[in-house]
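BUG: 3D viewer hangs when loading the predicted structure for this chain

Environment: internal workstation, default settings.
Expected: structure renders.
Actual: progress bar stalls at 90%.

Input used:
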Amino acid sequence: MNDNRILERVSLSEWLLPREGPMRVPGRIFADETTISQLEEDERNRVEWSALRQVRNVATLPGIVGAALALPDVHPGYGFPIGGVGAFDPEEGVVVVGGVGFDINCGVRLLGTPLRWPAIQSWIDRLGEQLFRTVPAGLGAQGELRLSIAEIDHLLAQGARYVIDRGFGTADDLAHIEENGCIEDADPETVSMRAKQRQFRQVGTLGSGNHYLEIQVVEELLDPEAARLYGLSENQVVVSIHTGSRALGHQIGQDYLKEMTAASRKYGIPVPERELVCAPIRSPEGRQYLSAVACGVNCAFANRQVIAHLARSVLVNVAGCASEEVRTIYDIGHNNVKLETHSIEGVSRPLLVHRKGSTRAFGPGRVESPNSYRPVGHPVLVGGTMGTSSYVMRGTDVGMATTFGSAIHGAGRALSRKKAAKRFWGETVVSDLAAAGIQIWAHSKQGIAEEAPNAYKDIDCVVRAATDAGIARVVARLRPIAGIKG
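Structure tokens produced before the viewer hung:
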């Protein structure tokens, strides 16, 4: 190995961070040479935020199994790197606030439509404008669904089903949502009143930051059989919705950062970084946090369900689609922690898997996938930027064995929001995108600058690294034609 290298190359897109010092397991990074070089440079220069240092820190936590993982869209986060995965033994391991983050169950829903491109090109502006007017977006945005505390408790316990029962969608939607739109063991009593109060009017709102609603066209099919099972075809118009649990999830993160700080001291767990505060999984504090996270997960499922219903109504009213023709292809989160069964050295065992900016990517045959998708595994929805492709991928047997069935969730940031806002001008970004044939409706020009396409890594390189590593396979490439931003 080159003496200047921190990581050992295992294969084309897989690298090893050797175990040393207090690390209980090695680190394993799946990325291309460009990303690896940047990670190593940040570590050598001792930058304040180093994703490699965060991988090393995660590897020190009690009960971690296999390796601390980072995927090709890796960049620094709070505690865990974004694009990070950590699996823990339920008896000896811990549940970690930084392994989930503050936007609990932020995720993507993909809606298929009967519309074709370029047939809708002449009236795409009218469709985009009506989506912009119909779907509330922006910092502090409020929706039409007003809930009492008792109703919020029902939503936290029941997830997407609660809003579907109130007329926001159909039972077919549930069949194509991860966990059927609801995680069990969600006890609303574990969520603070402050968190619930912040959610009174936020169900069915897009929010701000990197959240979006995007009209896309299926530009290329690379796995025709999987695309057929998913209901995707070339030139089909689809709608992608990216958002999470809004203020409620953020407040849960804030509340339990304090609770788990106390728990870490109580149980004598060394914490190398503040956001890695944690508690034993079986402890009262660990169980309480997992229940609160489940509530946040269910809130996000319900939020995306209401937005999908609003988008469906626009497609019916503006585009003339029949309601049943606008179907949920899949809905999956990428900030979660779940108890799952995985094969370790040929033995199936339960593990608590944290995915921070990482998507569950279960391969063929897993019962967690919708029945019709089971032969190929469920869709993995990978968001690009306002100006670049997004992708539909699927899990593989290699990924099941090496990443606990996890894959990339997006391009991954190359610049912080602060640096992007200094480098780019919102109006210029919008005009450049328009010149490229992509219409943008936005509530904040600064938000556009922060989310400029050049603030992110090259999505094609990130997807190629995941493919080269064998952890996921490309099904389809989606091209943006219009976007709604907060």
